[in-house]
Specification:
The protein has 339 residues and is of the alpha/beta class. It has a domain of 223 residues: 3-Layer(aba) Sandwich (Rossmann fold), CATH 3.40.50.720. The chain is 41% helix and 20% strand. It contains 13 helices and 17 strands. Strand 2, helix 2 and strand 3 form a beta-alpha-beta unit.
């Protein structure tokens, strides 16, 4: 089955649909399926204007609104079959400086989306989370962790036919606000590449695989599932050196130190979650679905050996310098910059 055939003749709503994920997801759906309509819901009219002019598809419907405003979500949700909830405040410094704004968008906004999805009998909602939600140390991660808990609570208490599930992924390569576009900008400005810590590790996931994860969740996700795509990682020093080698850049690197709210290594699955996680080849499926039964949480336990570690950017497959360069060279953004 084509991975997008489930979307044929369906109405899809993408919140925060003008971001990196939204753009690539829309292009994939338009290429690989025949939807009835794709609704792009966001609050940035300029990005909507640019996306409309770039894609020029009569199947796209652009809606101005904010997930914080439940009435605007209600209007957008009518008749929708599937929802990809990508709207969020994602920048760590922004959320650190304005944590209540992150609460309003990432927590309260998510609740609005899920409530309206159930009210409108949406078939399935896939919420997008992040490795920052695992053992969170910053406001963005904390709000994303609660986004997951809101989804799980809705899955447990759902009284209709709507399925609620989620995905969690690490750094999406070349997405807006990520380090690779920053390195490219610094090269264009003839500046040294700023590096927090050469030994810091990060998952490396190309955007098409991130989109594939969400489509996999749409097809296979069950109530309360969190699905994770396994990803390789590299040190930040290796990633910076790979960029320098590819572009034959001579200005070098400036180490600036770890910033507040950053981790040395990222975790996609906790030690505790690995007990109940199902390994399905390229993916982990964390089964979380339990009906609202307090004995399951306060009285009954599960005897199991706790894994030594979770699934982290430190213990996943570590890419060599040559492997990192090969992965970078596979990205359309890098290919375009080299022309």
């Amino acid at each position: 089955m084509n991975k997008c055939s489930l979307l044929n003749d369906k109405i899809i709503l993408i919140t925060g649909g003008t971001g990196s994920f939204g753009n690539d997801t829309v292009e994939t759906i338009l290429t690989e399926s025949n939807p009835k309509e794709i609704r792009i819901f966001s609050r940035d009219e300029k990005k909507q204007f640019d996306m409309r002019n770039r894609l020029k598809s009569p199947l796209l419907k652009f809606l101005i609104g904010d997930v914080r405003d439940r009435s605007s979500i209600s209007n957008a949700m009518r008749g929708v079959d599937f929802v990809f909830h990508a709207a969020a405040l994602k920048q760590i410094p922004t959320c650190e400086f304005f944590p209540m704004e992150a609460v309003k968008t990432n927590i309260l906004g998510t609740n609005n989306v899920l409530e309206e999805a159930e009210e409108n009998n949406v078939k399935k909602v896939v919420v997008l989370s992040t490795d920052k939600a695992v053992y969170p140390i910053n406001a963005m991660g904390m709000t994303k962790a609660l986004l997951e808990k809101i989804m799980l609570a809705k899955a447990r208490n759902a009284n209709g036919g709507t399925i609620f599930c989620g995905v969690r992924y690490g750094n999406v390569m070349c997405s807006r606000g990520s380090v690779i576009p920053l390195f490219m900008e610094q090269m264009q400005n003839n500046q040294r590449l700023t590096l927090t810590n050469p030994d810091m590790t990060r998952f490396l996931l190309p955007l098409p695989l991130a989109v594939g994860l969400v489509l996999y969740a749409l097809e296979r996700g069950e109530n309360g599932d969190i699905l994770i795509r396994k990803s390789p990682a590299s040190t930040m020093g290796t990633l910076a050196q790979a960029m320098i080698d590819i572009f034959k850049y001579t200005k070098g690197i400036q180490v600036i130190g770890i910033r507040e709210g950053e981790k040395t290594h990222e975790t996609l699955v906790t030690r505790e979650e690995l007990i109940k996680a199902e390994d399905v080849g390229d993916f982990f499926r964390i089964k979380n679905f339990e009906k609202l039964d307090y004995s399951k949480f306060f009285i009954e336990g599960k005897i199991s050996d706790l894994p030594k570690d979770g699934y982290t950017s430190e213990n996943t497959k570590r890419l060599s310098l040559d492997e990192t360069k090969d992965l970078l060279l596979s990205l359309k953004e890098i290919q375009s910059a080299l022309k």
